[in-house]
Amino acid sequence: MHQPVMLEEALEQLAIRADGIYLDTTAGLGGHTGAIARRLTTGWVVANDRDPVSLELARRNTADVADRIKFHYGEFSTLDEALRENGIDQVDGLLADLGVSRYQLTGAERGFSILTDGPLDMRMDQTKGITAAELVNYTAEKALADLIYQLGEERRARKIARAIVRARPIRSTQHLADVVERAAHRTGRLHPATQTFQALRMAVNDEQRELDKLLELAPGLVKSKGRVVVISFMALEDRKVKVKFRSLQQEGRATTLTRRPLRPTEDEVATNPAARSAKLRALEMN
Ligand SMILES: C[S@@+](CC[C@H](N)C(=O)[O-])C[C@H]1O[C@@H](n2cnc3c(N)ncnc32)[C@H](O)[C@@H]1O
């Protein structure tokens, strides 16, 4: 069973109204989308994702409330089009549950996983863009080290980049994990390649720029008194959300509802370890 992260908190912060219109920018497997839709009578949800395979799964998982949901395939930069296509200017609430889903992360064929061997892909949308294999095999050593350092916040980035370049061509996720593990020995609980995989995933999917785009568009997509709720899993992302929310408040355009980010309960983390690092921030547009 798929457990949407911080579901109760997200629904509460979105202040769902039965006749409201909502935009789930990251439908994933449809966990949040379905829960929102089930609270609606005359309202509806536009459910967006850049991964066409996930959208299909979301559609299946929310079949009981299909009449309340309109699906849209696209990146954050297409969100205004997602609304326009459905004849909407603005919504009562916008949700973003960032990153990759369990389904994407654990499917060996998607190439995100350190633990199962698969092709080095890592694209959320497998219909376009460059793969992680292309990135690790063709990027210059210095640029690769910078990328792993900045996006993975990995202090051993230079050593890792050197080892990757020497071992080229890197053939699979397991091959990459082994090369990194030999260069950067295990120090804690995490697999030594965790941050390298994170950095590559963020680069392949241009996640930083995508988040900037989302934060730039969101205020214009939400009505006055409407809510923006963002769940992030990485410090780099939470920082961007915090800074944007603060500047919207300073400009008098919005009011922050969460001075500090909300965190999942201990119960939730116990049943769903994927929620461990989640931080939820909410904003109301003035
Ligand atoms: C953590 S999952 C969402 C899970 C979902 N809330 C649920 O309960 O099933 C994040 C989803 O956002 C999508 N995604 C990430 N970045 C995106 C972007 N820039 N544009 C559109 N979708 C994106 C991913 O493809 C993934 O399916």
Tags for this model:
globular, 286 residues, 7-stranded mixed β-sheet, alpha/beta, binds S-adenosylmethionine, 15% strand, 13 helices, single chain
Write a structural description.
There is one protein chain. By secondary structure, the protein is an alpha/beta fold. The chain contains 13 helices and seven strands. It has helices spanning 7-14, 31-37, 52-61, 79-85, 102-106, 132-138, 141-152, 157-167, 173-183, 194-204, 207-221, 235-250, 266-271, and strands at residues 21-24, 44-49, 69-73, 91-97, 222-232, 254-256, 279-285. The protein has a seven-stranded mixed β-sheet, sandwiched between helices. Helix 8 (157-167) crosses helix 9. The protein is globular and about 60 Å long. The two termini are 38 Å apart. The site of S-adenosylmethionine has 21 residues, from helix 2 and strand 2.
Measured between the Cα atoms of the first and last residue, the distance is 38 Å
The total beta strand count reads 7
- The proportion of residues forming helix, as a percent range, comes to 40-55%
Rounded average pLDDT: 96
Radius of gyration: 19 Å
Low confidence ranges:
none
Q: Give the names of the bound compounds.
A: S-adenosylmethionine
Instruction: Outline the biggest β-sheet.
Output: 7 strands, mixed
| Count of DSSP H/I helices | 13
Strand order of the largest sheet: 3-2-1-4-5-7-6
Task: Classify the secondary structure makeup into a structural class.
Answer: alpha/beta
N-to-C order of helices and strands:
HEHEHEHEHHHHHHHEHEHE
Portion of residues in beta strands equals: 15-25%
Q: Estimate the global geometry from the Cα principal axes.
A: globular
